[in-house]
Amino acid sequence: MTDHSMIRVRGARENNLKNVSLDLPKHQITVFTGVSGSGKSSLVFDTIAAEAQRQLNETFTRFVQGFLPSYGQPDFDRIENLSSPIVIDQKRVGGGSRSTVGTFTELLTDLRGLYSRHAQPSAGLPVAYSFNAAQGMCPECEGIGKTVQLRLDRFLDESKSLAEGAILHPEFKVGGWIWKIYAESGLFDPQKPIVKYSKTERQNLIEGLPEGEERKVTFGGFAYQYEGLSERFARMYLTKDAASMSERKRAVFEQFVDSQTCPLCHGARLNQAALRSLLNGKNIAELCEMEAHHLLEFLKDLPGKELQFEMTFLLGRLEQLVGIGLGYLSLDRETVTLSGGESQRLKMIRHLGSSLTEMLYILDEPSVGLHPSDVARLNDLLRELRDKGNTVLVVEHDPDVIAIADHVVDIGPGAGTHGGEIVYQGNLAGLRRSGTLTGRFLTQQLPARKSVRQARSWLSVKGASTNNLKDIDVDFPEAVLTVVTGVSGAGKSTLVFDEFLTRYPDAIVIDQSRVAANVRSTPATYTGIMDEIRKLFARASGAPASLFSFNSEGSCPNCKGLGVTYTDLAFMEGVTSTCEVCGGKRFREDVLHHHLRGKSISDVLEMTVEEALNFFKEKKIRVVIEAMSEVGLGYLTLGQPLSTLSGGEGQRLKLAMELHKEGSIYVMDEPTTGLHLSNIGLLMKIIDRLVDAGNTVILIEHQLDVIRQADWLVDLGPGSGKAGGQVVFAGPPAELHRSRESALAEYV
Ligand code: ADP
Ligand code: ADP
Ligand code: ZN
Ligand code: ZN
Fold first, then answer.
1. If both were cysteines, with which of 143, 155, 258, 507 could 137 make a disulfide (CB 3.0 to 4.6 Å apart)?
2. How far apart are CA 65 and CA 573, in angstroms?
């Protein structure tokens, strides 16, 4: 008889996994630990989740399969006893302006039902309460609640020429490819200030060419369609793209648009008929504006046993929303404005409501964005998922989440080629004794900073009142490390991104968003050393440098230098496969005959940073690869597509590029996301170097080791949403114990 109590994985080899075999207990919580880049995602997401999804898809008819993304089989020998997978990741909930907390959690559906049955005076009439339906939406804003327009005065500095940077939006910056579309279009003199443009020129620049006229602008081997600034801006930002904007992008975006509350519905999105129907004196839009915990109180106060009974499901869900620490959200909050962590917790709510059992839940760092005091509630939810009869797999670094594991799988010992093995599996007590990096770091803390650095001067934010901020003044010390803390929803992101960054726009944001600008980007191209490497090859071989670029003539003609080919399968998601012509080497056969110290260009791109350190003695290259090795990326290869880097790896790559600068302001949002406890020490060393070189660093962070290392803390609170938005403590960590209000005092 076969044993179905374990998921059995044999011979897993995706990415860096070294033929890994292991058994995972079903109906338990298994936490996967290990340093960043050790192979956790390769095992949990790229192997287990991917295979479970693939097998599930195979159970559908061919017709249905046609509508599902298709997955190749991951690299392994055997996997047995999988269940249906549900991956709860931190990807933002899309759906644009029409997706709100209320629509996503389906709470709004229930509220609408309640209104159509009980509201006065409309009960019984066919009044629609949905802003996504033609009969319910406000006719003026079509259910969006606001109107958005480009602000030309902020977008263009007309006293300047294109070459002097007349276009102020950062994505149109001088020298960038978008800028070239204008500067190299031949339509304008790039040296002429915009004020001196003729009427036609101005029109061509802003609105685009007249109907029927077209122009292609060619550079770098590509032809781009010319369009006017406002057309391009609208296409880049005003359409569906807003749904997928990073926080940073959105912050920039908002500087260039005027968004007005809809004059007809005042943001309520609904038409007047719907807004006139009241329940206990309030219309449905007013309910949606309330923070969830207040809405819960309001609904519980509605009279009538039957009504209360009817709302059982609605109240239960709202209680879960509050229980997971999101009680400060209102149902009308657009899901695109939620952070990754908030989105993930919202997705959990959706699944907790489900009565399916025997599922395989897979979560990626659910503790992200959670204050230590919120983690306990997260743990309750994970246990609840398990106790409903599901198997729960969690990738986590937070010791408080690792603490509730029934089973721990520690992957390591190092990152990249130095990782990919199971270094420990078993219970938590065993992990502590195991002597693995994770085991050791679980029992030790980074010490507090011995002496704090003093501010050189202060960067002031006065009268901050965006979102929930209560008209506060905050001074950020220059040339030291400031950490902004507070429970989730306290106002940290609002203070740093909406208030600080708009006053100090040259601050450099180092976030975990993808670094890749295009599919061909690699660490070598991103850091600029590819140009140096090509020159070396040209010098050694006598062939032109351009031959050694996989973006131009030297590239494999079949895959155009990508190393992979993409097969479009009509309405199925396409399939990527290694290029048959170059075998993934990206270059033409003849290019590979040229050598530099015995290596072809493709050999060089396959080198890890560490290997490259032994190969290159050229200064310009060494500065970069030494910095990469210092930030702990020595295991990356020079040619690894940037799209395969994890958020944490990408962030450290960005940091490596900054190591030799001084006098800048850096802003980072939860830089420890995806970082193992042992990587945090490394990150702090890098940050210290930046500060010691005279830079100002401002972090939003929950990780206690980081908080203890701060020179200066700004703790926001005391609560979330309306109950937050105030500075409860500002000062060096050593003085925190004097604060009676700060929830942080007891943790640090
Ligand atoms: P973790 O989740 O533990 O941070 P990953 O599983 O994401 O680690 O990565 C393990 C190693 O595999 C890293 O060196 C990473 O750079 C590499 N890697 C991940 N995805 C790919 C890929 N698609 N192609 C090549 N290398 C990859
Ligand atoms: P934190 O970063 O401390 O978790 P935030 O700054 O994200 O907190 O949020 C502070 C408050 O502002 C919360 O009540 C949140 O719901 C609200 N808020 C944040 N962003 C937006 C937004 N784009 N639209 C409306 N409310 C927002
Ligand atoms: Zn409207
Ligand atoms: Zn090829």
1. 143
2. 10
